Structures are given as C-alpha cells and as structure tokens.
From TrEMBL:
This is Putative Sodium/hydrogen exchanger (Na+/H+ antiporter). The chain crosses the membrane at residues 6-24, 31-50, 70-87, 99-121, 127-150, 171-192, 212-230, 237-255, 299-317, 323-348, 360-380, 386-406. Belongs to the monovalent cation:proton antiporter 1 (CPA1) transporter (TC 2.A.36) family. GO terms for molecular function: potassium:proton antiporter activity; sodium:proton antiporter activity. Signal peptide: none annotated. One of its GO terms (cellular component) is plasma membrane. InterPro entries: Cation/H_exchanger_CPA1 (IPR018422), Cation/H_exchanger_TM (IPR006153). It comes from Deinococcus deserti (strain DSM 17065 / CIP 109153 / LMG 22923 / VCD115). Keywords: Antiport, Cell membrane, Ion transport, Membrane, Sodium, Sodium transport, Transmembrane, Transmembrane helix, Transport. It comes from the Bacteria. It holds the Pfam family Na_H_Exchanger.
Length: 422
C-alpha cells in the first residue's frame, strides 16, 4: 500500500472514531477512540477468521506500521513539547525534590519489584523466562505515560500544585524508564551472546548520563536558541514554524548524539514556555500560539490512541498470556503504590502530601503508548510475544478503567489539598 493510501486510511479511521465518540460515546477523546479502535479490531479478528480478503489486507497494512518508530521518532516529542509548554516551570522548580524522587527512585523501585514479581509469577506458570527479561518488562511498564497522564490532568482540572507534581513526574520518569530499558536490553543481548554496551557500573552510569543528562542539555540549548528566534520576530506563522523546527531538531539531533529525545523535548518545552511567560512580548499572540499547540496536542493524541488500539490485530494472544496480563494488573498497581509511598515517607519532613494526592498519583499513573512501543522492541522470542500481550492488557485497563474513574478521585484530591502541600 502506498504511503498516501496508508495515511488516508489512518486519518479516515481516526476521524470516524472521533466522530462516533463525539456523537454517541461522549467519552474523553483518547479513551473514546481507544474503545472504538478496539471494537474495530475485534471486528477485524472475526473477519480474518472468516478469511474475508479486506480484513486480511487490513491486518497486513497494520503489520507494516512500525509502531515504536511512529511513537519515538514521530509524535512523542511533539506531545511532550506541547505538554511541557503548559507546565509552570517555577512551580515545577519549587517541587524539584519530590519530582526527581518520584522520577528516579519510584521508577527504579518499580522496575525491580515488577521484575522480581513477574519472574516468580511466570515460574509458577512453568515459564522459564530469564530474570533480566522480567526486569525488562518492569522497565517498560513502570513509567507512567506522559501523553495519557497529561490528557487526564486536563480533563480532571486538578489544583495546579497537584497537577505540577503529577505532570512533572510523568514528563521525566518516561526518560528514566527508556534509559533503564536500553541498559537492560543491552544486558539481555550480552547474555544471549550478542554485543552489548559496557555493563560495568561506570559504563551504566556513563550511559545514563549520556542519555538522560545529554538529552536535558540538548533540549536546554535548543530551547534557548528557539526563544531567541521567537523574540526577534512578531509573525505568528514564523513562530509556529520555529517551534515545529525546534521539536524536529530535538528528535533528529538526539538520535545522532545518542541522547534522550523525549527529555530533550521536555527541556525545550519548559524553557520556551517559561521564557515566553516572563516576556509576553516575545510572541505576537500568546493566545493563538497556545491554541495551535493545544490543537496539535489533541490531534496527535487522538491519532496515537487510535493506532494503539488498531495495533492489537498484530498481537498473538493466547489464553495463558491473557490470564497473566489480568493477574499482572493488580500486581502492577500494588507496586505503583509501594513505589509512590517510599518517596513520600522519605520526603515527609520537608513536604506534606495529602492522602488523596497520593491516591491520585497511584490511580492516575496511567500506562499507554510508550509501554506498548517499548514492548515491540523487546528482542524476538517467547518473552516478546508474552510481554506484548501482558502490556496490552495492562494498558487497555489503565486507559479505559483508570482513565474513566480518575476524574472523581481528582475532584476529591482538589477538596483535600493542604496549604502549601502536595
């Protein structure tokens, strides 16, 4: 299928699902298109079983889409940049201790606990999956998806302090998770006889510094350059082009320098948003600028969740893998609770966290497209197929069940905020 035909098909399917959601389901856009996309995928499964040629062609088309490339090299940087633009950088800096603790400590704890728990669970089912692969699953499922979380926060309208804390953690912990995933994938490759990165303590620290810190530095440099360009012109079209070029530069340059493109996009977005807030005359129209990036964010979000739902047709399900995915849901939520509570206890003397805020961080820690994209990159083998199904089950539960119920919890969190607390 030609690229034009493929793009037309995806846009039309997305438009149809969005229209159906707006007219019938009336759910939040990302949840509505996910539900609609899953229904379409189930219909395709039935038609494939009946050997309907059109359904077989549809599955072939979806199989030809590199979902991980679409996420990491396509839409993710734009979504993270748009999300970071809306975060108050001054408020984020005042909460730097909790944000860093949740992004680093919570993610590390979750990766370890999920890995060990899955290793024991899979052994109970007679599956001999190496521990390093189970830790790899922990790395892909532990980070909360900033795309899903930021969308949830916009819908829930939580107090700004809580929004800053939850958004800040989600914006940064995906970068930590991706770096951890890369390290563990290198270990898995080395144990399989393939050439991997330097796996000594200094090698791992150096790799983390290059990926994470390098991404932040790159984003900061490009963000400052972008701001200088923005304040020197007063033309809305040029301002939009400058920021689009900035995001693309973050993605392309990060790939060449082997640093984290998501963290570069976050740093650039925070800097541009902060500097233009300080100097409103840097933009010809802040309202039009924000509206453009809000629309871009919404459209890409809907496309991403539609494709996420449609990708289910390429996953090979089995009764055992589905059962393991269902068992993993409460286990992952329990581990999320533990990984949130530990930093809360350590930071208790300097920061006060209301009970509903902690519950919001646990239940609102949605998993989404990033986890699925990482699952597609797990080395080929039995672990890849198993983890892909388990990840899909957890992500669908997270987006639909948690996404539909977190609003009520957010409202309670808003009523339970303590003065100068989180």
């Amino acid at each position: 299928m030609r690229m034009l035909d493929l793009a037309t098909l995806l846009v039309c399917v997305t438009a149809a699902l969005a229209f159906l959601n707006a007219r019938v389901l009336k759910l939040p856009a990302s949840i509505g298109v996910t539900v609609g996309g899953l229904v379409v995928s189930m219909l395709v499964f039935v038609l494939v079983a009946l050997n309907v040629p059109l359904a077989l062609e549809a599955v072939s088309v979806v199989r030809g889409i590199e979902f991980d490339d679409f996420v990491f090299e396509g839409v993710l940087s734009f979504l993270l940049f748009a999300g970071a633009l809306g975060v108050n950088s001054h408020a984020l800096w005042s909460l730097r201790g909790p944000v860093v603790s949740f992004a680093l400590l919570s993610t590390a704890l979750s990766i370890g606990l999920v890995g060990v728990t899955m290793y024991g669970l899979l052994n109970l089912f007679g599956l001999q999956i190496p521990l390093v692969y189970c830790l790899l699953f922990g790395a892909l499922i532990s980070p909360t998806d900033p795309v899903a979380v930021l969308g949830m926060l916009k819908q829930a309208k939580v107090p700004k302090r809580i929004e800053t804390l939850v958004a800040g953690e989600s914006l940064f912990n995906d970068g930590v998770g991706v770096v951890a995933f890369a390290v563990l994938a290198g270990i898995a490759a080395a144990t399989g006889g393939a050439h991997g990165p330097d796996l000594s303590a200094s090698g791992v620290l150096g790799f983390f510094a290059q990926e994470a810190l390098g991404g932040l530095v790159l984003g900061a440099v490009l963000g400052v350059l972008g701001y200088v360009a923005l304040r020197s012109v007063h033309d809305f079209v040029v301002e939009v082009l400058v920021t689009l070029g900035l995001v693309l530069a973050c993605t392309a340059v990060a790939a060449h320098l082997h640093v984290s493109a998501p963290l570069a996009a976050v740093a650039a977005g925070l800097l541009v948003g902060s500097l233009t807030d300080r100097r409103p005359t840097a933009l010809s129209s802040r309202e039009k600028f924000d509206s453009f990036w809000h629309l871009t964010d919404e459209l890409l979000n809907i496309f991403l969740f539609t494709l996420l739902a449609l990708e289910v047709v390429v996953v090979r399900f089995s009764t055992q893998s589905l059962l393991l995915g269902l068992i993993a849901i409460p286990l992952v939520l329990l581990i999320r609770a533990i990984s949130v509570q530990v930093p809360v206890m350590l930071l208790g003397k300097r920061h006060v966290f209301s009970p509903f805020t902690r519950r919001l961080m646990i239940w609102g820690g949605l998993r989404g497209a990033i986890s699925v994209a990482l699952a597609f990159t797990v080395p080929a083998g039995p672990a890849r197929e198993l983890f892909l199904v388990m990840t899909y089950v957890i992500v669908v539960f997270s987006i639909i069940v948690q996404g539909l119920t977190v609003g009520q919890l957010a409202r309670k969190a808003g009523n339970d905020v303590l003065p100068e607390s989180a």
